[in-house]
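Filed under: proteins

Residues; backbone shape codes:
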Amino acid sequence: MPTPYTFSQRAEKITSSTIREILKVTERPEIISFAGGLPAPVGFPLDDVNAAFDRVLGQNGRTALQYGPTEGYTPLREWVAGDMQRRGAEHVGADEVLIVSGSQQALDLLGKLFIDPGSNVLVEAPSYLGALQSFSLYEPNYVTVPTDEGGLIPAGLTDERVRDARFIYALPNFQNPTGRTLTLERRQALVRRCAEAGLPIVEDDPYGDLRYTGESLPSLLALGREASATVVRLGSFSKVLAPGLRLGYIVAPAPIISKLVQIKQATDLHTATLTQMAVYEIVKDGFLDQHLPAVREIYHKQCGYMLDAMQAHFPSTASWTQPEGGMFIWVTLPAHIDAHDLLARAVAQNVAFVPGAPFFADEARHNTLRLSFVTVPEARIREGIAILGRLIAQSAADTAGQTLELNGSESIPAIVAAENAMISSAARTQAV
């Protein structure tokens, strides 16, 4: 809608998130939603969180309600550093940890730190939509690195792609949106190549603790410490405790943390002291080691329900990933099927998902989609997947897209198309 206000060019280029717009539809109780990447509420440790806040306020309430250091609550930073060491990243100290208000803030701070208009930024194809949205505010030139079922392909880091790049953004564990995991061999090759090229790696790992099959793999941070590569690791308490806490962290060499602290001071001064102290109270004595096995089992079962239903109801012309952890399954449809149109028909039958096109920084693949399985009961997973399977099969004969009205005016396909246009706009020139 036109306004009487003059916004910055940067603000004018921002559009609503595809997923957030779709979630408006999924608020209807009859909708079976595979759209939102929301953790299962049944896994939230409500009693433990409540008790932790009570202890902090009862024992140290005046400190908890006061301003705090930008770097974060020191005991929590020390805990994060120790956790990284336990995971194989040698010599990580608290001076290399910055506590942030959720990992989405971490992405924004890194965009401010590294990206000038026209700077080359390397990303996977596809990549996390929230990162693309965050980085896009600073007008980078996205350069996509090819991927396959084993994740990012390190051989794709050619001299041409790497030249003048500010960093490569990678999600090695149960990637959002594909659910893929970067193999050990590729992790090692990626770290070696980036060390050789002097290219920082931004390792975003919100799902790494949600592995429910297969063997755990070393982080890029741990491998980078061994290979003298610069790795900036992003972590979050959203998936292991609760997203409402809005608490994450950045682990990076001290000179990077120092500059990020200055940027954060201009953003919000510091992350909420009360929340940091409460989270430290929860995790300090090994709570996550007791809590996470039950969460993983929930996700494992949910994933199994969806994979079983897809095997039973999806046509053989569709293919999908087999995640070892996390929250997502990535579906590739026959080339002639547009997931935007499929979404309109699905919502008309009370099923929602996220089309895959907005997850691509350059050439969108419209025959892809993302499914999330963790918040939907088994019976509704099976019902929704059966409906979706029928619609996929029917799409071969009926590709005329229906338009589902949202709020009486704008359609879901229109919203997704607008989002994709934003991602591919002139502000972010085409990738190499």
In short: Residues 400-411, 413-432 have pLDDT under 50 and may be disordered. The domain at 9-44+290-423 is CATH 3.90.1150.10 (Aspartate Aminotransferase, domain 1). The first helix runs from residue 9 to 12.
